[in-house]
Amino acid sequence: MARTKKPVTVKTAPAPAAVSNRDRLGQLAAVAEKFKGWRPAAEVLTRVQAQPTIFPQLNRKLRIGGWPLQRFALVHGPSSMGKTTLVHGLGLSFLNGGHFYGYIDAEFTTPETWLAKLMATQSTHPGFVAKRPKSYEDTVEAVREFAESISAARESGKLDKETTALLVVDSIRKLVPEKLMEKIAKGDGGVDGASGRAAMMRAALNAQWLDELIPMLYHANMTLIFIAREAENPNASPWEEQFKVGGGKALVYDSSLVCRVTRAAWVKEGTGDAAKVVGERHRVEIRKTKVAGKEGKTAEAFFHTSNGAITPTGFDRARDVFDMATDLGVIEKSGAWYSFNGERFQGESGTVRALNANPDMLASVEANCEPGEGEDAEAG
Q: Where are the beta strands (DSSP E) in 6-156?
């Protein structure tokens, strides 16, 4: 007769009491406080900070109210079309706000007399500093020292905590590493001194440098702009860009903003043979951004410079505002007449003169061009 096995009784531990969601959140918070060097994400991943610029259209198109901080950007375009003019306008914006503007003139071509016309009295602002570097390595060290000095002064209380800075390198192509300079001086290795690999060497160094720059700019609460040159791209297909940007792909890929500057037109007064040039209209194409949403693949903004014929020599803010307000319908056009808030002005030049002569009206027109609620689209 087969033996019947007794059933085995397995003793199990009692089920743990259910933990409420509130208690669980409390547990997470208590443990998170023990993480060294960590803070709540809402305190670290803050909204994009920006410095308002003297360019009203650029402020609007960037959709964060100005030029982003804690990031670096790339500005490029054809020669003599306004790249350096744009960055000096951005530098002027930082100086106007009581911040630093550092300019590394690797091109060795920027005269103080031109800056005095472009920036007026701010060309001698105590926060405006410049350097003409000896080499690539000299520039890297200068950028590091600039950022660390500002951070240290802010932490020690010698600078207001809100003080920030813009640093511009003009241009990245002119920075030559010391070893490459030695090869060029000796005439070794072909026409560029490196058997045709000079551009590759520079691109690799730039990519390596960016790895240091990105966290440095964040902790120094400053922004940096590289100016790059363009070259024709003869092998480009019809749907590709017809130009190449020097300095390596990392400059484009890692930039928060990539802006291309070209001359849109000469600004003239009068018509036909009697027309005379009174300034320039520059186009800024925002081709890539990590700081906000865009209207499309490319967003466009314009800024103007004056030769002194209608408005003072330098940046023509009155024409910038007029251009934006007319485009948005804030200033209404009827034939050769323009009107705003019941006042009428004859012709574009007449309206620009009136705006330039009346700062309160200029401010009112610009305020009416501000984006409405929900129109801005910010991103991290």
A: 50-51, 67-68, 72-77, 100-105, 128-131
